[in-house]
Amino acid sequence: MDKAYSKKLLTPKSQDFSKWYLDVVLNAKLADYGPVRGTMVLRPYGYSLWEKVQDYFNSVIKKDEVKNAYFPSLIPISLLRKEKKHIEGFSPELAVITIGGGEKLEEEIVVRPTSETIIYLMLSKWISSWRDLPVKLNQWCNVVRWEKRTLPFLRTTEFLWQEGHTIHETSEEAKEMALRALTWYKDLYKSLYSLPVLIGVKSESEKFAGASVTYTVESLLPDGKALQSATSHILEQNFAKNFGVSYQDKEGVLKYPYPTSWGLSTRSLGSVVMIHGDDNGLILPPKLAPIKLVIIPVLGKDDEKVFTFSKKIKELLEKYDSAFAGSVELWDQDNGSFGWKVNESELMGIPLRITVGPKEVAGESPLTITCRVKDVESEEVSQKTLKEIGEKVEKMLEKEHAFLYEKAEKHLEENIRTAKNYEEFKNIMNKNKGFIKAFWCENPQCEAKIKEETKATTRLLPLGAKEESGHCIYCNSKAKHLWYFAQSS
Amino acid sequence: MDKAYSKKLLTPKSQDFSKWYLDVVLNAKLADYGPVRGTMVLRPYGYSLWEKVQDYFNSVIKKDEVKNAYFPSLIPISLLRKEKKHIEGFSPELAVITIGGGEKLEEEIVVRPTSETIIYLMLSKWISSWRDLPVKLNQWCNVVRWEKRTLPFLRTTEFLWQEGHTIHETSEEAKEMALRALTWYKDLYKSLYSLPVLIGVKSESEKFAGASVTYTVESLLPDGKALQSATSHILEQNFAKNFGVSYQDKEGVLKYPYPTSWGLSTRSLGSVVMIHGDDNGLILPPKLAPIKLVIIPVLGKDDEKVFTFSKKIKELLEKYDSAFAGSVELWDQDNGSFGWKVNESELMGIPLRITVGPKEVAGESPLTITCRVKDVESEEVSQKTLKEIGEKVEKMLEKEHAFLYEKAEKHLEENIRTAKNYEEFKNIMNKNKGFIKAFWCENPQCEAKIKEETKATTRLLPLGAKEESGHCIYCNSKAKHLWYFAQSS
Fold first, then answer.
1. Each residue of B177-206: pLDDT tens digit?
2. Pick from A396, A431, A447: which residue ends a domain?
3. Do A72 and B35 touch (CB under 8 A)?
4. What are the pLDDT digits (tens) for B162-175?
5. What is the number of structural domains in chain B?
6. Element (H, E) at B272
7. Within an 8 Å CB–CB cutoff, is residue B28 touching chain A?
């Protein structure tokens, strides 16, 4: 810890959201800027959040028999060119290696922006029979995309992600897989991030380069903009054809299988910071927080007794639940004042805090567990037994988890509005932002015009949306569905 | 699994070691070749070994308060140039990005060959006081080095590794850290890989580019060549100076701290394959093996009973030890003959195998646990109780672990020879290879001549080697130490 960081360094969230966000990311030591424009260093505290995501998601996918693997980050440009739509979509974002081992390369090599092409190349060698299907792979890795506007976590030139890649005999199976991944993401946002999301289908123009269907997870940020927070694609069968991935079915007929891909990146952590945080800094949802509780002793007289008592509490909690071992910290170092430590614990978004002074030791004051979120009431521990303190800590973590989710859900729900006509649409987008439900004829020209005039893009059509009878908000021709629009973050 | 792979595809190890190695790596589906020369795909089975390494090593370093982080893979070339020896060492191996986002870059960017430079750049921003020290970081990532001769696992253009980076107030602390890391590697080789290694100090010419001391872990391969299997460096304080990493000590005096770095890569898995494997394929040491035991039912009459019985054994083992959940497999799929499955389990190096047929079900034959390593005796299970079967499996895994270590240790010990003169040295290097202990005057010219004439390089001087009085094997001038020489793999 470093004394130089103090509360006053943070711009209030309500005053300047963008500045507040950068203040929190930098001062809570989640991340820092790398030397190449748009790159980001994930500092240990920030990286520990990504490790939580890895642990959580690995246990989900391994239950479904998805296997982790690692494919080279170096892809010959000719491989990307095998899929026309794919290279068209990605070519403006590529980082190209032209020199290797001191010599100009015969063929340019691209640092992976995503791994479909190299994975299909390998699958074409590994798959020959229906017995080899399905193949379900996942990889945790870095990818490079040359972004124009960058922002820590949200859009960085290099980022970390997981990319799942599967390939199936039937299109139904592929669809099931893509939808299952979508559900995994929604569950992850709810269980680990305490965040509600919207899920649905992307429009033709907003699809992934080379996908036949893109499913999306969308979050609402505090500034009323939408963030694409994870995606899952059914890829065009073309991909299999272009890369020569084929198999013999049970009757010996040569067929092309159906691929899916799906990804969640470090971007998602940006939405956690943005949505939950407050003027005092980060607020980490309890399931994601690497430190769940911090014990801060009040130093002065009776230091020895205060230390002993503080240690005992830490030990009680670790005994109560092995999950607390490593996630309960005692800040007894002489590296800052009591007040500074309290501020630091708030800045870092540690869910719970117990302060211990001579009065707590002497039993003159009850031991108080304070939640990082002011709306979650403090709890007093009278008995200081293993059971009492353990149960209260557990209860408060659950309460905070629920509170954060409900607060974000309320904000999301309050910011989904229906526009009956284009005037209303423009007014809402001007004044409130958020999501707007509106009929759209699904003609890309209307979509483009709406974007040009309001900055709003189609975000999704909810899964299983029923056909309705309406008129396009822009051109007034017949429209079957209420689409969700929002400005993109 | 794929029926196409069968025993006959493997070249015998004794017949052609290099070809056998590639056969095993490819057919056991550990890895495959990527499209860019020298790159490698880590297939799920191979990657699962690396996940074991990550789990093991993370728990070791986290106990020592080393924190994982992630630094960008994109490094401006000017940053590498800040350290003259470093750029000299690495420039022949660099992959250089010259185009980003469709435009020629103003400054060339290098894909990290290692991360010292970018980490010190960041530390110069993060460190200001003695209170900030030590910093102990680790990162799991890919690195790219343009290798001329490549071989799966051993030397690949891109590889995965962990790179630890620490920085300390005193050179003593830095030395302690570098030695601690060395011990971690030696322990990992022994505990996880069942492999003995030699540890010691590298000569001046064999040091890491920019290190003041390089400690090394050396393995002996079956072909008598040595493999540098992990390294740990104390870096020149110059590194701190050149990157502006400084701190104020307790008296307020500006000082430069002492850095260390240490790394273990996927190369290490290559030595596991090479040393333990046999004519039937891979032999995975039990602690590293993702599948520890496979149950193979004999199909025919009474299939239902055989299946039920096989499942019961799997459940018993999972009940006995939760560590067996996920590491005991039942191969009851109709995807190959009994014989093919047995061969496949051998090819994959699964430590233990139980075959179940009608006789075992009826109690006419005892249940036999067979070890992948022929020298470890089979065990018969008579009672088939939870306790009996669990204990026998455990015991056999321990026996195999010990057997593999001892076998490799014997091979290592038998192949460390002392050469009294240069003739003897040349004879040994010609006939036996292996390690040769010989007096060397520590003059790089003698070292270079020996390499030129015998292909042998200095591998290490053992830690704490006592001063002796001898004469250089090459020039006959005074020499204080017996160095270890070997040909490099």
1. 999 999 999 999 999 999 999 999 999 999
2. A396
3. yes
4. 999 999 999 999 99
5. 3
6. helix B267-276
7. no
